[in-house]
Amino acid sequence: MGRERTVSLIRVFDAPRSRVFETWTRAEHLARWFCPHGFTVPACEAEPRPGGVFRLCMRSPEGRDYWLRAVFREVVVPERLVIAGAADDERGIERIQTVIAASFAAQGGKTRLTLRATASGEGPEAGAMLEDMEQGWTETIGRLAAHLAH
By three-state DSSP, how is residue 106 classified? Predict the structure, then answer.
């Protein structure tokens, strides 16, 4: 039987909604922040339209590659994104299915991001990935804040 985990985060960024939304939909932005601390994004592709590709490689500090292969399920500029797909372990084996929903609300020149990421999978490798989800998303959204500050 598979396991499921959901991470929900709310964060306010000192940046306009259109700019925050753009950081989620353009590869040149995603490559700078869409990974936990210590990781890099050596490959990224984003086609922000329903059915469009959302694919990126997160490389660990040890040089292991983890791929997220997904599509944009929903794109409402600049309000909401839903990205759905699968994540591979370091051996390139699909381990978890994931759905990432991000909502962007204007709040007096700032942006309130509401994130809900749900993932499920079976086996010990999936279990380890699910266990790391909350920390991974917290660090990733922290990197987004740093990226927006530049």
Answer: strand
Helix (H) or strand (E) holding 17: helix 17-25
Across the range 91-105, mean pLDDT stands at: 96
**Domain locations along the chain:** 3-149
The CA–CA distances, whole Å, from 139 to 29, 47, 123, 144 equal 16, 24, 25, 9
- Hey, how many other C-beta atoms are within 10 angstroms of the C-beta on 1? 3
The torsion angles phi and psi of 87, rounded to 5 degrees, stand at -120, 135
Instruction: Using DSSP, state whether 133 is helix, strand or coil.
Output: helix
pTM of the model: 0.95
107 phi/psi in degrees, rounded to 5: -145, 80
**DSSP-derived secondary structure for 29-75:** HHHHHSS-TT-EEEEEEE--STT-EEEEEEE-TTS-EEEEEEEEEEE
Considering the segment(s) 3-149 as one domain, its CATH architecture is 2-Layer Sandwich (3.30)
Residue 122 is encoded by which pair of tokens?
Answer: 């079976």
Q: What percent of the chain has pLDDT over 70?
A: 99
